[in-house]
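Re: weekly structure request thread

Next one in the queue (309 aa):
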Amino acid sequence: MTVRALSPHCTAAAALRIAFLALTVIWGNGVSLGDVLEQADDRGSVITLPAPAMRVVSLAPHLTEILFDIGAGDRLVGAMAFSDFPEAARLLPRVGNYSYLDLELILSLKPDLILGWRGGNRESDLETLGNLGLSVFETDPRTLEDVAALMRRLGVLTGHLETASNRAQQFEAAIHRLRNEYGSRRALRVFYQVWDQPIYTLNGNHVVTQLIEGCGGINVFSGLQSVSPVVSIEAVLEADPEVIVGPRESDQSALWMSRWTTWPTVTAVKGEQLHAIPADLVARMGPRLVDAMDAMCRSLAAARTHYDG
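Done, posted below.
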């Protein structure tokens, strides 16, 4: 990711403005003599705040969603592109995207906490923000349990621990309820298709496999080494999934589904068990994973009804 302050085309004047803004942020935040807040982030560093964060910049859409979900949405002063849920998130200033960070804008917002995503932000960019004296809390949620834990940790840092704990408990309870309802039903072979040209899928280390298994399914490619491997059509034919699930973005699901009609011998195609789940529900490591799991379970339940009568 390119950061304007580090660009070789950055002017001396711009560099001076960034340096001045960085000092302004540090001096402006001040230090409290009261109890400090401490939380370890996912790189193993302890983030210390003199008081609950009041001005937060989120560098990933799922982090934006979590803050709104735990009642801390009003603390956000900036967010990354594609932070579009809930509706209020659309009104936040955009501090960049996955190929560019507007460092001057971030500093001008005077954040007392930056929420970074190790899986989506370049480490060098997060280090740059830290070197400028900003508090950077780096996150890397990979499981459903991680999401609940992150909700609680962000609750501590924003002074919304009670609400965050309640929301995390509701998240965990919903996951548990779905597992109890669907997890012990007849196992179905499931192929989750991320993309179709080439064919990308997800292995057993991805949260999608947790969703599939929690709904009583078996990810046919869970044993592959890469988290998001490319697989051949021959590999899919050999695995012969009973259900094919993929993301839905506007009308794109119809296109990837229609391509499978070329392979009518696949059990899922023969049985017309191709299902689509809204892409943002699956792709974002936030509270809406409950909705993603609910959609997955309903899809597998529909397939069982078809096969078992």
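Residues 1-16, 18-34 have pLDDT under 50 and may be disordered. The chain is about 40% helix and 15% strand.
Next request, please.
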